[in-house]
Each structure stands twice: as structure tokens, then as C-alpha cells.
Amino acid sequence: MPVTIPKNKYSGAVREVTIGATKAEGGTRTTTVTVGGESTLPFLFHEGAMPHPPRIAVEIADRWPADWSPLLREAWGDAVDDPVAWAKAAEASGADLILLRLTGPVQRGDGSKPTAAEARKVVRAVLGATGLPLMVFGPGIADLDNELLVAVAEEAAGERLVLGVCEDKNYRTIVAAAMAHGHLVDSRTPMDVNLAKQLIILTRDVGLPMDRILMDPSTGALGYGIEYGYSVMERLRLAALNGDSMTQQPMLVTPGEEGWKLKESKVGEGVPASWGNWNERAVTWEVLTSSTLLQSGADIVVLRHPDSITEIKSVIQRLMAPAHNGHS
Amino acid sequence: MALSGLEIYKLLPKTNCKDCGFPTCLAFAMKLAQKQVELAACPHVSEAAQAALSDAAAPPIRLITLSSNGNKLEVGNETVLYRHEKTFFHQPGIFVRVSDDLPLDEIKARTAEVDGYVVDYVGMPLSYDGLAIAYASGNPEQFGDAVKAVCDTTHKLLILIADDPAALKAGLAAADGRTPLLCAANAENWRRVALAAKNAKAPLVVRVDDSDPSTSSEQRLDGLAKLTEDIAKFGVDDLVLDPGVRGFNESLATITHIRRLALKENFRALGYPVITFPGEGATSQLDEVTLAGQQIAKYAGFVVLDHFTEASAYALLVLRANIYTDPQKPIQVEPGVYPINNPGPDSPLMVTTNFSITYFSVANEVESSGLPGWLLVADAEGMSVLTAWAAGKFDAERIAKAVKESGASGKISHKQVILPGHVAVLMGELEEELPGWEIKVGPREAVDLPAFLKM
Ligand code: B12
Ligand code: SF4
After folding, report:
1. Alpha carbons A176 and A179: distance in angstroms, whole number
2. Contact A277, B311 (CB under 8 A)
3. Which atom of ligand 2 is nearest to the CA of B28?
4. What's the fold here for domain A17-319?
5. Taken in order B57, B58, B60, B65, is the CA torsion positive or negative?
6. What are phi and psi of B412, to 5 degrees?
7. pLDDT at residue B2 tops 70
């Protein structure tokens, strides 16, 4: 019996979403990034197109977060004490986008938090330091996020930033700010297909156009729930391809954040010998979490370590470019 | 063609004797139709029915078994494309390759490294499955010596990688008593290699080589299917596929085609597990791990690595465990009171949930702190602290119930309980549920528990 390679027929496709605006488009970015548009499961080019490769966002912060692994400080050096230098280093490391994290009491460890004026200032500075599209995430406390992101949205009007994270408890304020000033949002829900759809619907109902919404189904790190995120993403992507309009958003995941908060990545001493070399383990953890989520449909992976960025970038290139003879 | 449950039922004895382990013939028929049991489980089918059923009963991806000194690895027999549809059943075997042209000491040293490696993940000891010995010396006798060196060092499973039947024979002789995977038969050598596999009753890798750059995926899989049909006719049924592709994209696409052909089209000639060699498609050791990870998630049955490090083994083994976890049931521990470091009546009482990952992150921290304590595991239906809290499975009422009914209070002389920092909000309610108790809020992350306990 001769082989006919099976092709799934899909009726839907993922929406295209463009992040960042150039001068001509009302912003100041020198490049923009478009993600989405898939009409196939990841990298299966025989049955559909993947017009845009998955992209790498590199996470930097307004100041060095006290709860980050010392390995990250070692990797970036003194740049981490200055968001401008850090943004430049991130761009040089191969970032397609920059994610600026505004730190709050938890990340800072000293109970302090930034004011809206400080948030405006650091966003301005980072926009000046790099021409890449920018995403800005708050500290993760609903009230504080609202306060800071509203100010940031106004300060960077027209830049097509991604504001995040937008959750069911605070989406109204952030979505309104995005609408008013020409930005996008990262719509995050806790690993559930229906919740993901619901928040997209709510966001659309407020009036934000669908090409300004990224879907963030939450990420579990390798060993800490990756399988839940992986399967929810597979289900969301299958639903999108099968025509369910409210799941057809490009997906953003945060393997850097999840991977680097684990003991595996944070602690070098007093751990089992079988865990192996600390730096190798931490980078492998981030890389393997990311590469696995690329298989389940991630369009943007947010990373933290320069070595992970290099590896994932190269992996994406090869996944996007099948060689003729089957060798890489 | 696959038969429906009802069609199968008509062919069964319909006596409901339960010898198959199912309450009725119909229940058994349904399971057969879903390819979740083997026909052999019913001892009473007639021969005629057997013939009619054998096609429907055979799993779409053949189960392949390797064995060695009581160790066993079963691969294949998968039924779904996506783990959320049911679950993935048989984890891919992970092997490390050593070449027979290395000095025997070095072969032994590398084998010992793999053999001795075990890492604990949520209470499960994880390790690699075995060694793959590659024939590079050109001398069958040397290959046999290398296999013997490996066998002298480990009880783990073996893959013998050699195109030359003479080398395979020498390897098989040295691997006495084990059932290794033989690798590989190709279009040129298959008759002689298949004979060796048949005599040894060993499973065999079937490989299409990748010499012609213009070969399309169809042609490649056609070639592979034709070879497996020939070899099956020759009498070797336990086959493993090597479609010859190595790079990230080609490997993903080709293995996916094979899985879909087997499951969706019931394409018998490709209904076997796949073997991969990520090191041959990789540019560095990290790259090899990344490609191996892709292949673990996307349908490989055997993964042969060229490098071994502890950190990469830990990561890959955890990935394999995660992908092959049954999505319907989170890995859980029994609710109850767990003593850590020989606690006494005045040792602290901490409460957590019965999600394995949660329990072990906390238990490991307390254990390594050296401080005694009682860990009270509440029944939170296998969910993490915050998930369970959000789902209403870890509230004040449930925690109070656990404190009262677990027997914890009988073990301690004080009335203090420490809550996970993430659910500090429960403090007030819990004080009401547990009158006379002092509720303390611990740190959010388990890593900070030792410092907290020392205060
Ligand atoms: C994986 C996951 C799931 C999985 C479940 C996994 C499981 N078996 O529990 C699934 C997908 C099923 C799920 C479902 C839901 N989830 Co959920 N989920 C997660 C996720 C991604 C990881 C949780 C995890 O496994 N953590 C790892 C374990 C080890 O952490 P842990 O149990 O907290 O333990 C740590 C500490 O608490 C501490 N600790 C533990 N015990 C103790 C004891 C003491 C004494 C001390 C001091 C410390 C301590 O030590 C551990 C290590 O540091 C988190 C988000 C995230 N990234 O954290 C959301 C999250 C927990 N989920 C959330 C929600 C809302 C839900 C749902 C209710 C959504 C819904 N409506 O469907 C459902 C509820 C389940 C249901 N109804 O069936 C929210 C909770 C929001 C909140 N703050 O209340 C979170 C935080 C996501 C979010 N940001 O919104 N979820
Ligand atoms: S063993 Fe056979 S005859 Fe007996 S109940 Fe099962 S299917 Fe029916």
C-alpha cells in the first residue's frame, strides 16, 4: 500500500497581531513584530502555513529584582542595575521584543514600589534605548498594576505596547488604557480553555480590536505543571484551527519567569548531587520548558538568560526551515 | 478495517464468564474496539472468531519489549495523538550511546555513570533505561568485547547498533540472557540482519538511509513501509522505525506522519514505535537535549543520546514523566500526618495539600533543614495550594477537618498550626474553625521554610 501523508483539514486560522509601531505608524519603533497567522499545528508545513516564526521576548526589569537567581545577574553583569543598559544588552543577545517588568514589593524584597511617575520615566528611557517593540508588565498586584500601567499607556501613546498581565480581576482598567492609547494587552487566565475564551470575549466586548489581544494561558515550568499548560495550549490551538473564533489569538508564554523561580534555578548548594551543574541545569530548564511549549503553539516565549535566547533562537530557525535532505 | 465494539461483541462467546477481567463480554468488546486490551485476555474465543478479530485486536502501534536481568521496557501501544484525548501510555526509553572503539575502561566508566544515575522527582526514582553500543571498530570481536564490558557494568537494557550481521551476532553472544534492540536493518542488509533478530527473538530497527537529497517524505515512508512488510513476512514482527531524518523540523514532521498513519489510517506497515538519535541532528550538547525533548513530547519510542550529564538527565527525565502523566489524575500523595526528622510532641505542625509536587517541595525542605516537624497533608483532591484554594478544596473548613480527624492533635502537646504563606487570607476563618488554636502564617515558598522554622 503506497503511503499518502495524512493532512488535517482546518477551517480556521490564528489571527495576526502586530506589536510596536514605527514612526510612520505613530510610534518610535525601528522594527515591529507580527505573530500568529498559523493555519497548521506548529511547524507542520505540509498541511498549512505558519507565516510568522515564534518570537523571543527578553525580560528585563526597572531595577534588579532581589528575588531573581544570582545566575542571571552573573550572565548580564552590571547591565541589570540600569534598565537602559539592560535593554541594549537584551537586544544584542538576540531579542525580538523587550519585556520590561515593573518591580513591586515582592520582587524588590524591601516593601517599596514604584510610583506612576517612575514608571513613566523608565518606560521612556527603555523606548529610547532600543528600537524593538516593547511589552510592559506590572508587578502582579492588581491595584498597583492598574495604577502603573494606566500611566505607562498614556506616556507611550501610539507605540503599540503590550500591557500585561490582564486578568479577570483587572482587565477593565488595563483594556481601557490600551484602547485609549493604541496599545495591546496580554490576556492571562489560569490554564483553562474556557477561561481563556471568556476573558478574550470580555476584552472584545469592552471594545478592544481582536488584533490587539495576545492570549496567555499561563505557564507551568518543567516539573511544576508544564503538562497542564502544554495540553491547554494544544487544545486552544486545535480549537482555533477548527474555527472557534475566540481562541484564535496568538499565544504568549513565560517560561523564563516560571523556570527561574524554582529551586532548581535559584539554588546552587545543598541540593541533590543528581541535579548536576547549577548553571547547566537552570539554562536547560528554561530551554526545555520553552522548546516544549513551542510544540504546543507558543507564538511568543519570554526568556531571561542569554544562553537560552541563543539556543531557542536557533531552534526556531531550524523548525521554520525544513532542510531538503532531512539533515539540519 | 477496525471493527466497532458491537461488531466485536458478536464474535465473542457471550457467556459473560469474566475470565478476561471485565464484567461482561460487551464491556470487553468495547475495550478491544478502543485498542486498550489484547484479545488474548479472553481465553475462550473460537479460532474463526480469532482470525476475524486479530486485525481489530492488534494495537495500531505494536508493543515492543526489551528485557535484561529482570528489567523490562515496553514501548508502543499508544492510542492518541494528544495527551488530553486520553493519556500517553508507554514512556520512550532513553539510552546513551557508547562506541566500541573506545578503550574498554572508558566504556565501563561511561556505562557506570549512566548505570548509577538516579534522581528523585516527587518521590519517584527516575533513571535512564540503558546503553546503546555502536559498532565503529570494524572488528566484530571488539564489538563483542565492548558489549561484554557494558554487560559487566550494568543490568540495564541494551541497543546494539551495527549494520554488520557478524558484529550483531558477536554482540548478541556477549549480551547473553538479555533481549536487546538490534539496530539496524536497511534495504541492503535486511535479510541477514533479520535472520540474526529472528534467531535471537530480538526486536529490530528498520532504517531508511538518507543518502538521496531529493527523496520526498512520501518516498521515504514508502521505502520504510516496504521494508517493514518484507521483514514481517520474513518472520520478524517486533520492529522499530528509523525514518532516517535528523533535524528539528524533519524529525517532528516525519514522526508525526508515522503516528497519524498508524492511529488514524490504521496503516499497519508503519504501526511501530520510532527510534531517534538527537545527537545526529544537534549542534551542541544543549541542542541535543532540546531535540530529545521535542522527540519525547512528539512521539518518539526510543531516544538515543550521545552525551550524558546529570543536569540534562534530570531535565529530560522530568519532561518524560510530565508528558506521560495521566491528565485525568494528578499525581497525589495520601492525606495524613507525615513525621519528618523524628518529631516529638513539641515539634511544629505544618499544613499543606496532597498534590505530589506540593508535598515533596515542602517535605524535602523540612527534611534537609534537619529540623523535626509534622507535615499535615489535607485532602485537596491532588491540587496545589493556590489551585486548591481557588477551587474551594483547601479552605478553613477542610483544613480544620484535617487537623481534627487526622490524629495530628494527638501527636502534639501544643495547639499551633502553620499555614502556607500563599493562603494567609485563611487565617481569620481558620481561627474560628479551630477555637483555642494559634494559626501562624509561614513563608510563601517552601525554600524559605528552613529559615522560618529556625526563627
Ligand atoms: C498547574 C496549575 C493548575 C492545574 C492544577 C495542578 C494541580 N494538580 O494542582 C490546573 C490546570 C488543573 C489548574 C486549575 C485551576 N487553577 Co491553577 N494554576 C496552576 C499553576 C500554573 C501552577 C500551580 C502549581 O502546581 N504550583 C507548584 C506547587 C508546588 O506550588 P504550591 O502548591 O503553591 O506549593 C508551594 C508553596 O505554596 C509552598 N507551600 C506549600 N505548602 C506549604 C506549607 C507550608 C506550611 C508553607 C510554609 C509553604 C508551603 O511550597 C511550595 C513550593 O514553594 C498556578 C500558577 C503558577 N504559575 O503558580 C495556577 C493557579 C494556582 N491556578 C489558579 C486558578 C484560579 C485555577 C482555577 C480555579 C481556574 C478555574 N476556574 O478553572 C482551576 C481550579 C481547579 C479546578 N476547579 O479544577 C490561580 C489561583 C489564583 C489565586 N491567587 O487564587 C493561579 C495562581 C493562576 C493565576 N495566576 O491566576 N491550575
Ligand atoms: S473472558 Fe471472554 S467469554 Fe468470558 S466474559 Fe470475557 S470476553 Fe466474555
Report:
1. 5
2. yes
3. 7
4. TIM Barrel (3.20.20)
5. positive
6. -120, 155
7. no
Does A288 contact B293 at a Cβ distance shorter than 8 Å? yes
Residue B216 burial class via C-beta count within 10 angstroms: exposed 0-12, middle 13-18, buried 19 and up: exposed
Min Cα separation B9/chain A (Å): 29
CATH superfamily of B64-323: Dihydropteroate synthase-like (3.20.20.20)
Tell me what pLDDT residue A111 has. Answer: 86
Nearest to A99 by CA among A261, A301, A298: A301
At residue A130, φ and ψ (nearest 5 deg) are -140, 150
Pocket lining: B386 vs ligand 1, CB cutoff 6 Å: yes
CB pairs A-B closer than 8 Å:
184
CA–CA gap between residue A177 and residue A161 (Å, rounded): 11
- Average model confidence (pLDDT) for chain A? 95
B305 alpha-carbon distance from chain centroid: 16
pLDDT for residue A158: 97
Is residue A326's pLDDT more than 60?
no
Quick one: how far is CA A145 from the chain centroid? Answer: 17
Task: Report the percent of chain B where pLDDT is more than 90.
Answer: 81
Residue in B1, B80, B84 to test binding to A, most A beta-carbons within 10 Å: B84
Nearest ligand to the C-alpha atom of residue B19: 2
d(CA B314, CA B120): 9
How far, in Å, are A244, B311, B322, B365, B374 from residue B305 at the CA level? 40, 14, 20, 33, 42
Instruction: Output the CATH code of domain B5-57.
Output: 1.10.15.40
* ipTM here: 0.94
Whether residue A328 and residue B253 make contact (CB cut-off 8 A), yes or no, is no
In sequence order, what are the beta bridge partners of A56? A301
A226 contacts chain B (CB < 8 A): yes
Integer distance in angstroms from the first to the last C-alpha of chain A? 30
Nearest C-alpha neighbor of A231 from the set B326, B89, B86, B84: B84
Q: What is the spatial distance between Cα A309 and Cα A60, in angstroms, rounded to a whole number?
A: 13
Write the pLDDT tens digit of every residue in A4-48: 999 999 999 999 999 999 999 999 999 999 999 999 999 999 999
- The CB of B147 under 6 Å from ligand 2? The reply is no
Q: Which CATH class is domain B336-454?
A: alpha beta
* Segments making up each domain of chain A, as ranges: 17-319
pLDDT tier at B56 (50, 70, 90 boundaries)? low
H/E run at residue B64 = strand B64-68
